[in-house]
Amino acid sequence: MNNLEKLTLIEGNFTTEEAKEILHNVFMTKIKFHEHKNFSSIERFGKDDEIAVTRIPELKKELQRLNEIFIWAQQHHKRLHLSSEIHISFIEE
């Protein structure tokens, strides 16, 4: 296996509504992941997960920014091209 693997997650042209559905789901899944991770840390260790606590507001801010993009695209009758790759590299534990 290569030290760097690339996977295509999203590639194509979409209506504003299609793009909104796709990206909203991606962001909400990540937010829920971090919320669950933080809840688990509080239950198990009695303290917040520092990464999750930092990442949740960052993701929510990006989601707000994304909504602004969708509003602009709808107002200007634009379709959206989305492209997203996942890069996986191997590191030592």
Question: What does the model show?
Answer:
- This protein is 60% helix and 23% strand.
- It has 2 helices and 2 strands, in the order βααβ.
- With 93 residues, the chain is of the alpha+beta class.
- Strands 1-2 form a two-stranded antiparallel sheet.
- The mean pLDDT is 97.
- The two termini are 17 Å apart.
Q: What's the Cα radius of gyration?
A: 17 Å
Largest sheet: 2 strands, antiparallel
Spatial strand arrangement across the major sheet:
1-2
Could you state the order of secondary-structure elements as H and E?
EHHE
Gist?
The protein is an alpha+beta fold and 93 residues long. It has two helices and two strands.
What is the topological layout?
Elements: E1 4-14, H1 16-45, H2 50-75, E2 80-89
Antiparallel strand pairs: 1-2
Keyphrases for this structure?
2 helices; 93 residues; alpha+beta; single chain; flat
